[in-house]
Amino acid sequence: MRILITGATGFVGGYLAAELSEHYPKAQLFGTSYGHTSGGGLPEGTTVLDADLRDPAVIARVLEASAPDIIFHLAGFASGAGTDAAMIRAANVDATRMLVEAVASTHKPCRLHLASTGYVYGTTEPGQPASEGDTLRPEGAYAQSKAEMEMVIQPLATENLSITVTRAFNHTGPRQTPVFVAPGFARQLARIEQGLDEPTVRVGNLEAKRDFLDVRDVVRAYRLLLCEQAPAPWRVVNVASGEAVSIQSILDTLLGMAQTKVSVEIDPTRLRPSDMPECIGASALLSELTGWRKTHSLTDTLAETLSWWRSTGVHIW
Asked: The domain 172-210+243-282+295-315 belongs to what CATH superfamily?
């Protein structure tokens, strides 16, 4: 089995490569890398290809070198805070379309995974997690690019080119960049504890509620869907906990682990012009297909994240 992970040296890519290597030790792993990364060391034997997937010639070289049976497409712009719509669309829509068209042109049977986002649903009503058949109401350039990506790619799915789209909700863990909320708080606390910053944690909107998962639970879902299920031409599956967690509770949990007293201050630069009050998803289909259940508690994930920042992260970012 030959597996290609685009964006393999990014946050999710490193965890996915480890998951695949553990369960399929005889598989040949290939990964693409481009620009700044936040992933851990890839498993020994992984072939890393430097690749800007916005270039069709580069895509062709990557596919020729890897000749994949399975592709996990993680590369792209991944933050809901992004505002450069043209840049985000180029990374998430145009580059994805070129990749999928190139895979189709090889006429080799392939299973392809596209990482979308739960944000394509937009704001969800309290107590009503989004399901795969719900109408998409994406808010912001990032979510809109992912919704368009799905629409553009669906006609390319065939029996020969099986495509699974995952709409994963917020996932976090050690090694995630501090532009995301949990590692952002953890980094500030670690720096305060080490005397590198004044004892004030700066925050944005604490009232928003999101659906948080540990990144290791997310990559396990990816593996089960792509490697353990019978292929279908087109499949869309949520990866979610179904639980609404406020940003305030994330902060409170981390503050409870702090080794020094800190104050909290609203930072206007961290407030988004438009921020969904709540966005959570239902994972019934994922569980029905694969038997998946989350195995990491959010408290444990946050503790590991803070520990990582204390020991390693402040020396990287």
From this structure: UDP-galactose 4-epimerase, domain 1 (3.90.25.10)
